[in-house]
Here is the input.
Amino acid sequence: MHRVIFNQKGGVGKTSITCNLAAIGASQGLRTLVIDLDVQGNSTHYLVGEVDAEQYPAEAQGVSGLFKQTVGPRKMRRNPDSFVWETPFENLFLLPSSPYLAEIEKELEARYKIYKLRDALAKLAGEYDRIYIDTPPNFNFYSKSALIAADRVLVPFDCDSFARQSLYELMANIEELQEDHNPDLAVEGIVINQFNGQARLPGELVADLTEEGFPVIDSFLNSSVKMRESHYEMRPLIYLAPRHKLTQAYVALHEQLEKGAGRKRRR
Here is the structure.
């Protein structure tokens, strides 16, 4: 299963959701790969810390190396698995980001390499039980590549009125991509993140989305300083604080997704 976490709005928790769901699966024995397509590299930092630029030149790192080789001689191309890094966590692997992604984006787009990530994941079939893809906060070459390569898409929603307005454009973009490039892509659901059940607005926004037919997943993720601690310690919650309320919310979300409990959006 290839699952992409995508929203065109920044700050909605894509990296936290990507890495923590992946870590929970890994902790349960699933061989899991995280692909970091965001040039900011937050998932990369979260899972492996600062990257030694001298030891790992940006143009040869992870995703950038994987994409860069598609514009070079075919006989020089390496297997996609050779770009994958181990993390400190058992069963959890990473295809890291690098700043070089920004430099090669226009070249990749001009050469229409939009399907190369899908091709690479096809070559990795059987290597990993689950693949999670973190995306940049815009509808660009890399996020489109991820949506084309994925089976399912999760949309984080941070209970903000601006996020609600951007959701309409986001869903329209996904539907257009499904029609043009990946008809098998399923919108698995909207993940309610940073939810405050004691405030009026979050509850009203969630109720409105549900009323409009959006596929809201009913395992909500609350706000907690523990997530910031998790980022700082570079340890996903399941390893840092397995009994914490937010960790258990992630476990419940993971269980619901694994059971295929996310409701489909009404057409």
